[in-house]
Design a protein that fits this description.
Keywords: Cell membrane, Heme biosynthesis, Membrane, Transferase, Transmembrane, Transmembrane helix
Largest sheet: none
Number of strands: 0
Mean pLDDT: 93
CATH class of the largest domain: Mainly Alpha
Membrane topology: Multi-pass membrane protein
Low-confidence stretches: 5-10
GO molecular function: protoheme IX farnesyltransferase activity
Helix content: over 70%
Number of domains: 2
Subcellular location: Cell membrane
Strand content: under 5%
EC number: 2.5.1.141
CATH superfamily of the largest domain: UbiA prenyltransferase
Number of helices: 14
Length: 305
Amino acid sequence: MAFEVTDAEAVDGGEVRDFVALLKPRVMSLVVFTAAVGMLAAPGNVHPVLGVIALLAIAVGAGASGALNMWYDADVDAVMRRTAARPIPAGRIHPAEALGFGLTLAVLSILVLGLAVNWLAAGLLAFTIFFYAVIYTAWLKRWTAQNIVIGGAAGAFPPVIGWAAASGHVTLEPLLMFLIIFTWTPPHFWALALFARDDYARAGIPMMPNVAGDPSTRRQIFAYSILLAPVGLAPWLFGFAGPLYGLAAAALGFEFVRRAFVLLREGDAERYRAAKSLFGFSILYLSGLFAVLLLEALARLWGWA
């Protein structure tokens, strides 16, 4: 990391909204959502108070990861259009403040989850923060075009943490949820990289389109979409989810593959439009799968299934 704030640029301290921005609220909301699904789908009934504490700790841990990511990546954020306005490169928060903020939140979230819920969930949260901040951000992101493939594990852990918080152990079911998010991550982020490649090129980040080119990236997106479709069905195939989930996963998986195929076949003039279409749908895909899992979990919890 080479980003520094000079004396002329030094700030007295950011406003509350700047520190909130460091937490990456959009990413945090997805983390909390998938963790909540893992928690409610787990066997047994977690006490509501402990459940809320667990989700808050997971949310804070995710925010800590975001703050540490923004601290380390402030130099590349400063040269990318879509990130230049973030609090550190914009000079609203000093890098040292962001680092201290992130480390404090990380420690607190792990301790609260361990002391109030259980140490298995806390250990998984600690590993997730470390994996995202160190393995992905400080190493993989700037070293290899496979950064998203390997680094996707960090975003796939929340449902496993939620399950562990509720049950005290990890079984096949949360690992299937992990596998869905892990397989979904490359086509999701490579679709983004196709229409943001100039940003990544300026920052020197070796995203797949900048390293292998657009045609290869589109082929890999399509290959991952073919893999994702049956992986998305896995909870139903293994009897973990019900028929409603099976129908939703089949329909959403088919549409994901269709859009990936359109992206594969489009000419240069239309590929960015197709990439944006796939990127937007990929968010709907993941949200839809976990929403149905949540509905089925609530139906079981309330005795409707």
